[in-house]
Design goal:
The complex is a heterodimer of chains A (175) and B (187). Chain A has 175 residues and is mainly α. Chain A is 75% helix and 0% strand. Chain A has helices spanning 2-5, 12-30, 37-51, 53-58, 61-64, 71-89, 100-106, 110-131, 135-144, 148-172. The longest helix of chain B has 27 residues, at 117-143. The mean pLDDT of chain B is 97. In chain B, helix 4 (50-71) packs antiparallel against helix 9 and helix 6 runs antiparallel to helix 7. Chain B has 9 helices and no strands. Chain B has one domain (2-184). The chains are: A mainly alpha (175), B mainly alpha (187).
Chain lengths: 175, 187
C-alpha cells in the first residue's frame, strides 16, 4: 500500500477515475460541483472586505458568490496540502523558481517568468469567472452532468490554450 | 435522505469535507502528473496527452456515477443555460491565460504544493487579481456581453432532443474510443 502511495506517478487513467469518484462524492455530500475558481472569488472578496469594506459591500458579484469560508473555499488549501503530501511521499517535492520547459526556451530569469505567470493568472481568473467556472467546474463537473454550456466552455479553454501555446513556444520560442 | 440533508446543512462538517475533498483532489492531480508545468504545456502543444487522459477518465466515471445517483434522487443538477458571450469569450480568455501560466486554477494550487514558486507568486496572485477585475466589471458585463447569444438548452440531451441514457451511451463510447485511438497512435 505504501509503495503505491509513494510512486512518482500513477497512470493518468487511475488518477482520473479517482477524481471521477470524488466528483460524485462532492455532488452527494456537499450538493455542489467540484470546482476551484469560486474559492478565488471568495479569497478576493475576503481580502476586499478587510481592506475596502465599503467597496466589498457595494459589489454585486460578492452578493452572488458570498465571500465566506465554506466547502468550496476549503478546496484550494486542501489541494495544496494533498499535492504536497503526494510530492513528499514520492520524494518529488523541490522548490522550482522557473519551470525547465520555460527556462530552456526563454531563459531562467525568475522576474520574467513570474511576470508572464502573473499576466497568465490574471487572464485565467478573469476568464474563469467570465465563463462561470474553470477546468474542474466546467471541464470535469459540468461535462459529467452533460451541461451544454460546460462542454462548449471546455472546448474553448483548450482551443484558446492550444493556439496560444503554439504561438508562444513554436512561433516565438522556436521550439 | 435525512442523513444527506444533515451532512449538507452542517457548516463544520462541510468545512472538513471541503478540506478532505481538496486533499484527495490535490493528491490525485499530483499523482496523475498534471501539477507539472511541462505536462500541461506539452498537452497544449499536443505532444503529451496526460491531461486529456486524466480528464476524460474522470468524466467517464463521473458521468455514469452522477446520472445513476440523480436517477435515484440523491443528487441535483447544477448547470445553467450559458451563452456564446459568456462561454466562448470567457473560455478563450481563460485559454490564453492557461497557456501563459501553464496551470489552471486547480492545478496551480497543486503545483504550489509540489514546490513551484511561479505558480504561487505569479499564478495564484494573478488569479486573485483577475477575479477582482471580473467582480468590478460584473455590473456592466451581466446585462451586456454575458447575455449575448443565449444557448437553447441546459443539457446536451435537451439540445439534441434525445433520451438521457442514449446520450450517455454515445458520450461514453466516444470518450473511451478516443482514449483507445490515442493509445494505438502511440500517445
Amino acid at each position: 500500500m505504501f509503495d503505491y502511495l509513494s510512486q512518482t506517478v500513477w497512470s493518468p487513467y487511475i488518477a482520473g477515475a479517482g477524481i471521477g469518484v470524488l466528483i460524485c462524492l462532492s455532488f452527494l455530500l456537499a450538493d455542489r460541483p467540484l470546482g476551484c475558481s469560486s474559492a478565488f472569488v471568495k479569497a478576493r472578496g475576503l481580502f476586499e472586505r478587510t481592506f475596502n469594506p465599503e467597496g466589498e459591500k457595494k459589489n454585486e458579484y460578492y452578493r452572488q458568490i458570498m465571500p465566506n469560508m465554506d466547502w468550496s473555499f476549503m478546496i484550494i488549501p486542501g489541494v495544496i496540502v494533498g499535492a504536497f503530501v503526494s510530492a513528499v511521499l514520492s520524494g518529488q517535492f523541490h522548490l522550482v523558481w522557473v519551470p525547465p520547459l520555460w527556462g530552456n526556451t526563454f531563459g531562467y530569469n525568475t522576474a520574467i517568468r513570474w511576470f508572464w505567470a502573473l499576466i497568465g493568472g490574471i487572464l485565467l481568473g478573469l476568464g474563469a469567472r467570465w465563463a462561470g467556472g474553470c477546468t474542474s467546474g466546467h471541464g470535469l463537473s459540468g461535462s459529467s452532468q452533460l451541461s451544454f454550456a460546460s462542454i462548449v466552455t471546455a472546448v474553448c479553454f483548450f482551443a484558446g490554450g492550444i493556439v496560444t501555446a503554439m504561438v508562444i513556444f513554436r512561433v516565438i520560442g522556436g521550439l | 435522505m435525512p442523513l444527506l440533508t444533515t451532512i449538507r446543512g452542517n457548516r463544520s462538517c462541510q468545512l472538513v469535507l471541503g478540506l478532505l475533498t481538496g486533499i484527495a483532489f490535490g493528491f490525485f492531480l499530483q499523482k496523475g502528473g498534471v501539477t507539472n508545468y511541462s505536462v500541461i504545456v506539452n498537452q497544449l502543444l499536443l505532444t503529451d496527452f496526460t491531461v486529456m487522459k486524466l480528464m476524460l477518465s474522470a468524466v467517464i466515471v463521473a458521468m455514469i456515477g452522477f446520472h445513476l445517483l440523480k436517477h435515484y434522487g440523491y443528487v441535483n443538477l447544477h448547470a445553467a443555460k450559458g451563452s456564446m458571450g459568456a462561454q466562448v469569450i470567457g473560455g478563450l480568455i481563460f485559454g490564453v491565460g492557461f497557456a501563459l501560466l501553464g496551470y489552471c486554477p486547480g492545478t496551480v494550487a497543486g503545483a504550489v504544493g509540489s514546490g513551484a514558486m511561479d505558480a504561487l507568486f505569479g499564478g495564484m496572485i494573478g488569479i486573485v487579481i483577475g477575479t477582482g477585475i471580473f467582480a468590478d466589471l460584473y455590473p456592466r458585463l451581466k446585462t451586456g456581453i454575458l447575455k449575448q447569444g443565449p444557448f437553447p438548452a441546459v443539457t446536451v440531451q435537451e439540445f439534441l432532443h434525445l433520451p438521457l441514457w442514449i446520450v450517455i451511451g454515445i458520450m461514453e463510447v466516444a470518450m473511451i474510443g478516443f482514449l483507445v485511438v490515442l493509445y494505438y497512435c502511440g500517445f
